[in-house]
Amino acid sequence: MNNATDTLIPAPRTRVTDLTQRSHTARRNHLIDQTFKYLGVAATFIGLIVLAYFIIDIAIDGIGRIDWDFLTSLPSRKAEKAGILPAWAGSAWILALTAIISLPLGVAAGVYFEEYAKESRMNHLLEVNIANLAGVPSIIYGILGLEVFGRLMGFGESLLAGAFTLALLILPIIIVATREAIKAVPSTLREASYGLGATKWQTIKWQVLPAASGGILTGTILSLSRAVGETAPLIVIGALAYVPFVPSGPMDQFTVLPMQIFNWTSRPQAAFLTNAAAAIIVLLLITFIMNGIAIYLRNRWQKNLK
Amino acid sequence: MSKKITERFIEGGLKLSASLTILTTIGILWVLLSESFIFFEEVSIVEFFTETRWTPLFESKHFGIMPLLTGTLLTTAIAIAVALPVGLTIAVYLSEYARPGFRKSVKPMLDILAAVPTVVYGYFALMTVTPALQAIIPGLSGFNSLSAGIVMGIMIIPLISSMSEDAMQAVPRSLREASFGMGATRFQTSFKVIMPAAFSGIVVSVILAISRAIGETMIVAIAAGQQPRLTFDPTVAIETITTYIVQVSLGDVAHGSVEYRTIFAAGITLFVFTFALNTISFWLKKRFRENYE
Question: What predicted TM-score, i.e. pTM, was given to this entire model?
Answer without folding.
Answer: 0.91
